[in-house]
Design brief:
It contains 2 helices and no strands. With 65 residues, it is mainly alpha-helical. It has 2 domains: 30 residues; 34 residues.
């Protein structure tokens, strides 16, 4: 390999190591704030109600039922 290729590969390798080092030293913020959890809970509740309606034969969507 010529010198330019070696330099480019070294720069790419250094960039990859730097990317790993950043993720180790600066942890990612955790997801799951209370507002997001309540939104998920309301969506799950809505899905549960829809599924119970479908299983009881009260489906309003003609394409689905």
């Amino acid at each position: 390999m010529d010198r330019t290729t070696k330099v480019l590969l070294a720069v790419i390798a250094a960039g990859l190591w730097a990317n790993i080092a950043v993720s180790i030293f600066r942890p990612v913020a955790a997801l799951g704030q209370s507002s997001e959890l309540s939104d998920i809970a309301s969506e799950v509740s809505s899905i549960t109600i829809d599924l119970s309606d479908i299983s009881a034969g009260k489906c309003g969507n003609k394409k689905l039922c």
